[in-house]
């Protein structure tokens, strides 16, 4: 079947001009070589400096003693980290944030995978309307739905439960995730699945063995979005959770700022604790993430 | 090849729609329990009550101590503590008023009292206070501010603490320049000029130009002119020609004696800038005392009440008052009131304010030794309760006050600093909005 499709779709077009494409890379290489290196590195260095200064500022405040005005974090102290982690319960907040973010990632990815597959592979009557509704849902801010969500979770006895935040985060992540995943699935030739059916697989097995491995960049893109969004989101955790033992990192960071006083050292240390998992996640997945974005951008 | 699932989809659509409707109906079917419509009950005076701290995090430790003391005295009552970040307290209350889940007791500052009270969520406390051991023990000035902020008809908040506008100044820089303490406005302007040396990045003053700029500016304006009332009949005095002149003089400090970055100063940036630089004076409140101690050490600065006029007349605007409110929807108001009474007792109120660095509302607590040792708090208490002090009551009771004093006019204040708007234009705009809000409020009361 793959062969047949390939045969049918093979164009009988005249051969393209042979020389021009081969010369283009060479020309580009020569043009690149002629550019003085500092034309490239100076703007990049300035941009890097501009990006890194705020991070340095956070590190400086987190690592220098309270009251110090030194521009280098010396003598270095970890008192601020100790304070936020132990005295201000950031250890607990961190665990809760990890749990919420990972659960949101898993639920969003699984449901988006199923929904995205349906959108990519099935025709149904309200498909266009459904796609439109998914897109429109992106224009609704979370704050607008706080009261109805609060009432629903109260009825379900889920207020002050991490489950309420996980469900709310997942629901808000799903529309965009489904649209993204459906784009990735459309890029996988349907004929591959059909070939697997011919070889005796049922639909689910064909999906699992043939399609799923090809969706890795897409799954990583969607999963990382879900993780980072759930990790950083403040509003639902603030509104649906009450016990201090169930709060998350963004809410904890907010409690470091009172109405008329801010402990900048503790705030900076808390900010680093909040940023580290996101930085690690992006450091590991950036290769697949870029692949995922470009693959998803091509309509199948 | 695509698969057509019109027929099977119909069943799925019906199930999905049914689920959505069921959830919607259950949500809409809320009987209002916990929301503003619920009248609540006195309850048994035992069991669990929930307390929301509107300054969660920084005040958590001291509240937990007070709760432990309370539970020791009343073993039949358990208090569930919920700390809410200060910046989000209003939205948390608003959501709970609409969606349910209000606490029994909550910390409600005067800045948000009107908006919470106007939604019918709070229990009037006049009669409870009258029959309580607290009667006559709380500062009358603060009770007046609380009553006024709640609309004037009833007491919706029992004050716990007062803050006060404080002029923090660097004693080391003043001494080096041979300047007197900036106790009057003349000395303040003189010091601001003499301490400024822009080439060496030294400034006499740092002005608040960003978020929260309006109240300190009004404090400076009324403090200079000595006008003692915010209203003259139904019209505000804010754009009185004397106030216009005072504001012109005050904002003329910007860039002349202050850093140019001040146009974006909220209190965080302003305090951080003062604590880490060489700036002579900072106008904030008592709340930043500990930040200054950490950054500068206790010997390099003093905190005094805002300057007086040359003849010693002290006029200042009312500062937000922190307090506790009882929520109408509480199912255990008797126990909730016991907790408020306990937290406001002399010993506990003293303990709380020593930790918060504020002036206790309980007059017995205000006599405690720690206040005599904490000079900024002691001077603030004297200024607040001084016989000669005139307090201009800002209209916290107007439901639109927060909008007018923040989102509507903070950008205008920045235009004023940048010279894109005159002081008269700024104050006339502010006055028009306030007069309209006052007329609306009066029409509804």
N to C succession of SSEs of chain A = HHHHHEHHHHHHHHH
Helical amount of chain B: 40-55%
Rg of chain A, alpha carbons: 25 Å
State mean pLDDT of chain B (0 to 100 scale): 90
Chain pair forming the biggest interface: A-B, 39 and 58 residues
Largest sheet of chain A: none
CATH topology of the largest domain in chain A: MetI-like fold
Beta-strand segment tally of chain A? 1
Task: Decide which structural class fits the backbone of chain A.
Answer: mainly alpha
Q: State the assembly state of the protein chains.
A: heterodimer
Topology:
The complex is a heterodimer of chains A (300) and B (445).
Chain A: H1 2-9, H2 19-34, H3 37-63, H4 79-87, H5 90-121, E1 122-123, H6 127-137, H7 146-155, H8 162-186, H9 190-198, H10 203-214, H11 216-232, H12 235-240, H13 249-255, H14 264-297
Helix pairs in contact in A: 3-14, 4-14, 5-8, 5-11, 6-8, 8-11, 8-14, 9-10, 11-14, 13-14
Chain B: E1 3-4, H1 6-28, E2 47-53, H2 60-73, E3 77-83, H3 89-99, E4 105-107, H4 110-117, H5 126-130, H6 140-149, E5 158-162, E6 165-170, H7 171-177, H8 185-194, E7 203-206, H9 214-225, E8 231-232, E9 235-236, H10 241-251, H11 267-276, E10 279-285, H12 289-296, E11 301-305, E12 315-317, E13 321-326, H13 333-343, H14 346-356, E14 359-360, H15 369-373, H16 375-385, E15 390-392, H17 401-408, H18 410-417, H19 423-443
Parallel strand pairs in B: 2-3, 2-4, 7-10, 12-15
Antiparallel strand pairs in B: 4-13, 5-13, 5-14, 6-10, 6-11, 8-9
